[in-house]
Write a structure and sequence with these properties.
6-stranded mixed β-sheet; alpha/beta; globular; 14 strands
Length: 233
Amino acid sequence: MAEWIAAEKRGRNVRMWAMPEGAPVEDAMGTVVMVGGDGAPRRAVPCKAIPEGLVPGAGGGFLFPALEWEGQPSDGAEARIAGFAARDDRWDGVLCIVGESTVWAHISAGEVISFQRFLTARLAAAIDVSEMWDDIKLREAMADAMARPERLAAYVARAGDAGTLWGALLGAELAAAKPYWLGQQVVVIGEGRAAEALASGLAGQGVPVMRADDTDMVLEGMKAAVAAHGGVA
């Protein structure tokens, strides 16, 4: 039996791992610690990236407390932020966490200073855009949208291919997130082509960019939160 189970809820899907080994499992045979539950968020930002305690779940187990700032939920990014801080609590820069939404978070000395959330991937899903795009068209559209983000709706209206659509959406996001990445070190956390495209777009602007594995950061963050809680067994 696992010492405890790390779980992440995204929409209707739940992923689980036996901890502390981190092996994927399908059945919860132990105390569950969940990211993406319905517990009360931490609204006092700036705050420590690693929460000082977990929230008891209504049906048992524990919830990893989310973050909320200026009405924005952190949407699972809280565990990834904690995971990165657990690896380097002296780092100062920006994390770009790419998933169903994108969270840009300013991190300094193990604290979350601020964050901004974007629904770029959800917009792409709403207009049914494939991730099978042409890289050249994506880069061209991204550059156009970064230069004139106010014309995003027009770019989308005339786009006839996935590369142009994704490029317009991601370029507009990069333009809006410029206060976060300009003059900063950025770590992109996430899987899939959207994460790759954002990392490439940032590098094209001369931003120092690193990548971190999404699952590794989730599990590192959950282990750090359980340790700060004093364990759950």
